[in-house]
């Protein structure tokens, strides 16, 4: 991407940029403890409530989201603000920080794209191939899916980390860049092809899921009209399972939609408008990446019944404990007051 040089940025843009970055920082700070709580809940109940492959895939993706969000601030936003410039002007420090920034950036992006693809594959398997979907819960398939999900991160570590980098001063800040331009060229081509593969797979899996889901609704409607004598207990169990499956399908669609939006942005900025100023590019890129790296925490609260139930239990337990502590304290105060007056 060639960089359009702008000598002086307008005041309105600088104000907008500062406000936006403050909002992004606030969103990250608020989302971080929520992420940690949800990761703890999923990991603690991984053998029963969150036993299926969907939440295992999502768990790995959430951990990567945390590192990606922190990496955007430490490796891009803070240097671009020209803060702690002594860390980036030193060649050795700049090289090391560039290694970390690019490795986490592209390694995280590969894992996030693979996560969206595997979530879509999980949903199409649940709807179209239920027998195979049941097999996915065993350790063999879990290992394969986790390998596919994290392989892009390991590949980025092997390819990117050994290279050298420099933080260049431009656009009133510091921005990391590859020193090896030949490597940079073919690596970006490789990442673009990988992104195309993710998006094509995601679109295909979601279309197949929607078509099969629509067909299954029609089929279940006709079967329900023929089997109205089923017990209410079985109907409740079936409706509860269907509700959980629908929530996972809905979350998969949301993740995949965000992945497609990211793909459209990259295609527009790198191919259709490749001369965009680097500072302007990173303004929109940071918004998209921070949103991508924080929305999953709120998505689970909104659309995951098991997560909602787990959090409600914690809140209820905390409320009960606080009320009990207040009651005991009140009783002790009453006893002490009575003893004083006596």
TrEMBL record:
It holds the Pfam family 7TM_GPCR_Srv. The chain crosses the membrane at residues 22-43, 55-78, 111-133, 140-161, 186-208, 251-271, 283-303. The lineage of its organism: Eukaryota, Metazoa, Ecdysozoa, Nematoda, Chromadorea. Keywords: Membrane, Transmembrane, Transmembrane helix. The keyword rRNA processing does not apply. PANTHER family: SERPENTINE RECEPTOR, CLASS V. This is Serpentine receptor class gamma.
């Amino acid at each position: 991407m060639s960089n359009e040089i702008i000598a002086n940025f307008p005041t309105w843009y600088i104000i907008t940029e500062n406000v936006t970055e403050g909002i992004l920082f606030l969103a990250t700070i608020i989302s971080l403890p929520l992420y940690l709580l949800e990761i703890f809940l999923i990991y603690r109940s991984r053998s029963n409530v969150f036993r299926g492959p969907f939440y295992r895939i999502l768990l790995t993706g959430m951990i990567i989201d945390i590192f990606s969000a922190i990496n955007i601030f430490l490796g891009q936003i803070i240097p671009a603000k020209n803060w702690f410039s002594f860390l980036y002007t030193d060649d050795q420090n700049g090289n090391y920080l560039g290694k970390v920034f690019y490795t986490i950036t592209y390694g995280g992006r590969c894992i996030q794209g693979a996560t969206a693809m595997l979530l879509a594959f999980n949903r199409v398997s649940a709807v179209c191939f239920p027998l195979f979907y049941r097999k996915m819960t065993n350790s063999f398939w879990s290992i394969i899916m986790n390998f596919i999900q994290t392989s892009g991160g390991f590949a980025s570590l092997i390819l990117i980390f050994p290279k050298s980098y420099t933080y260049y001063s431009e656009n009133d800040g510091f921005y990391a860049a590859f020193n090896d331009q030949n490597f940079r060229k073919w690596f970006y081509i490789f990442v673009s092809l990988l992104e195309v593969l993710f998006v094509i797979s995601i679109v295909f899996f979601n279309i197949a899921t929607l078509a099969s889901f629509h067909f299954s609704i029609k089929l279940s409607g006709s079967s329900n009209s023929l089997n109205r004598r089923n017990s209410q207990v079985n109907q409740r169990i079936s409706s509860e399972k269907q509700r959980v499956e629908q929530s996972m399908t809905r979350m998969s669609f949301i993740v995949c939609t965000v992945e497609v939006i990211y793909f459209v942005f990259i295609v527009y900025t790198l191919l259709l408008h490749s001369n965009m100023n680097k500072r302007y590019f990173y303004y929109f890129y940071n918004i998209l990446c921070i949103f991508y790296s924080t929305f999953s925490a709120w998505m689970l609260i909104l659309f995951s019944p098991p997560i909602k139930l787990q959090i409600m239990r914690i809140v209820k337990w905390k409320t009960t404990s606080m009320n009990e502590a207040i009651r005991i304290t009140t009783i002790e105060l009453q006893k002490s007051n009575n003893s004083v007056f006596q």
